[in-house]
Amino acid sequence: MEISTIISLGIYFAVMLGIGLFSYRQTDTSVEGYMLGGRQLGPAVTALSAGASDMSGWMLMGLPGAMYVSGISSGWIAVGLVAGAFANYILVAPRLRIYTEIANNAVTLPDYFENRFADNSRLLRVIASVVIVIFFTLYTSSGVVAGGKLFESSFGLSYETGLYVTTGVVVAYTLFGGFMAVSITDFVQGCIMFVSLVMVPVVVIMELGGFGQAVDAVSTINPQLFDPFTDADSGEALSLIGIVSLLAWGLGYFGQPHIIVRFMAIRSVGDVPTARRIGMSWMIVSIIGALMTGLFGLAYVTANSNTIDPETIFIHLSQLLFHPFIGGFLLAAILAAIMSTISSQLLVTSSSLTSDFYQAFLRRDASDKELVLAGRGSVILVALVSIYLAYDRDSTILSLVSNAWAGFGAAFGPLVLFSLFKRDMTRRAALGGMIVGAVTVLLWIYLPFTIGGESLSSWMYEIVPGFILSSLTIIILSKSGTPREGVVDVFDAFSAKLTEFKK
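The structure corresponding to this sequence follows.
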């Protein structure tokens, strides 16, 4: 590896660790301070940290790779994600910020569910926490695997060394700086991703002779690459159900704990519109850059008679077209995407273990100092389990990310939405909707049934039936019962505060 590349990567790691140290000194010792940054995130940090923790390596590797193989038909998923993210800012962000504070200052999603529905049995908290811990431990492990493979393929280090370096740096700044460190590093990482996804496609287009010639080069390879209704790889037309399945990825946003926790931590409800404008601008430009990297990267690779793994097109172009120092910066962008998601998932999982298990069942009277210490211990525990799982490369494949996204989206998405809009929603409806959504996704993935020779999951993305059945369950069960005492009063107080904000 070029010395310039090593220097640029060293600078990146130093900045991440420096932010962790800064946040450690600035963050107060309360649980709210460690897990939500004291609810003091500014709109820019909120927006970019939510975006960076959301996109992960998918933005720099998965989406360009899909575009490289299938053409712009793979862009339907991007359309769905943009629509879902925008709806999340409109429907969830301001309401959740207000309600979590009113609902006994909830600091985790399970904490909010329990307080919102006055669940003295703590069943809502337990089930939600189990879902978070299991899925996010596996989700985190998939990110660790991506880091290991990146170090192995690009830096000439062993896969195991990559696991420890990636996880070690993330754990270091997450462990000491908590939510504030994770959010600030996500902000920096989001900026790196943004610049990279503008630079790479622009340079590729220039290398091909300009935008018009780049389009002609792609059309020469396969005209179907520009057909949004045809999979250019197979040559088959996309079905309506196929397009709906791709668009349905956007439904997952309403239930992703590592994303919506940013809405709980923003400084004030008045900052949400600014965060939305920043976040959506970042997302749209970044996604377009990722799509163009894959599409025009194909033309460049074909013109130079090379053969590569489609998912490495961003890495290939960054090392081929740029000075080694800049190439190191672009590799850092991939690390940024991976690490930002790992850190967010580590913190959400450790927060759930600390607040929803340790404090709720073991040490109800624990001091803030003890809970912060337990949170840091949980970060290390989850990281170690993730590394252990990552040693088996086949245990955390990319389909797991898709399944986890669907599981969270179906289990928590309808529950979050209805809890913020439906005044008479009951605890039984919340519990039933969460269970039905999660179980539907699992059955849809693993039942040995086929439609037209395809598995249920291949025929339709599992989040669609999961989200629909969870919503129906909530509506039906809410009609057959009444909310617990005090729940409606809290909802009315929330509605009054929301109305005041809108004025």
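The radius of gyration is 22 Å.
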